């Protein structure tokens, strides 16, 4: 395998800084950036049919170069983990996700996230409640499973596990060569 990084998968809880990190790494490594939220959601915050989402993500991962920000359907997650040259698992303390989610919700009163399709409004109480429940569900149920997956011998060598803001800032500013890979 070449040392050149052509395929990056960035995963982690909602409101954890994945998209900001993705935009930076997309520029550093000259990779097309795909936020999964831009695919999963249709106008009105309607969830796209899973088969359509799978088809779109499979088209992206069949390309020579990509940077995917987010999970997508879970059956594709394992496939994309295997396809990626590098996996970045953003795993900051859960309180930070809640804080950033609150900040994001507040900002959405004035402007929507650019990665969402037109007609998506996150500035509602019902969406905020759903987001906060999702944060806990991912942290308590999905995170332990991700930790197991990332510790597999065929995956751990290409995984960067970001656990602190210091690590996040280093990768955001300088790319992947500036952080040591750590075993989970």
Classified in CATH, the superfamily is: P-loop containing nucleotide triphosphate hydrolases
Unreliably modeled segments: none
- The top-level CATH class is Alpha Beta
Secondary structure tally, helices? 8
- The assigned structural class equals alpha/beta
Give the overall silhouette: globular
Number of domains: 1
CATH architecture: 3-Layer(aba) Sandwich
Radius of gyration: 16 Å
Explain what the structure shows.
There is one protein chain. The protein has 184 residues and is of the alpha/beta class. It has one domain (7-178): 3-Layer(aba) Sandwich (Rossmann fold). It contains 8 helices and 7 strands, in the order βαβαββαβαβαααβα. The protein has helices at residues 18-29, 36-40, 50-61, 74-83, 94-107, 125-150, 153-156, 165-174; strands at residues 7-12, 33-35, 41-42, 46-47, 66-69, 86-90, 159-162. It has a 5-stranded parallel β-sheet, sandwiched between helices. Strand 3 and strand 4 (46-47) form a beta hairpin. Helix 5 (94-107) runs antiparallel to helix 6 (125-150). It is globular. The two termini are 23 Å apart.
Spell out the blueprint of helices and strands:
Blueprint lengths: L6 E6 L5 H12 L3 E3 H5 E2 L3 E2 L2 H12 L4 E4 L4 H10 L2 E5 L3 H14 L17 H26 L2 H4 L2 E4 L2 H10 L10
Parallel strand pairs: 1-5, 1-6, 2-5, 6-7
Antiparallel strand pairs: 3-4
For the structure shown, list the relevant keywords.
Rossmann fold; two-stranded antiparallel ribbon; 8 helices; 7 strands
């Amino acid at each position: 395998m070449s040392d050149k990084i052509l395929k990056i998968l960035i995963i982690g809880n909602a409101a954890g800084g994945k998209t900001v990190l993705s935009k930076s790494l997309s520029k550093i490594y000259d990779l097309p950036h795909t936020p999964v939220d831009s695919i999963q959601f249709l106008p009105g915050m309607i969830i796209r049919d899973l088969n359509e989402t799978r088809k779109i993500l499979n088209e992206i991962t069949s390309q020579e170069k990509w940077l995917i920000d987010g999970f997508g359907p879970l059956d594709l997650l394992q496939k994309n983990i295997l396809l990626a040259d590098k996996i970045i698992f953003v795993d900051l303390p859960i309180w930070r996700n809640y804080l950033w989610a609150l900040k994001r919700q507040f900002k959405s009163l004035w402007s929507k996230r650019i990665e969402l399709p037109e007609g998506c409004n996150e500035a509602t109480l019902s969406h905020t409640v759903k987001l906060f429940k999702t944060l806990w569900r991912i942290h308590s149920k999905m995170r332990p499973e991700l930790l197991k997956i990332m510790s597999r011998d065929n995956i751990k060598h290409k995984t960067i596990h970001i656990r602190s803001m210091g690590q996040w800032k280093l990768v955001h500013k300088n790319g992947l060569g500036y952080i040591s890979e750590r075993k989970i």
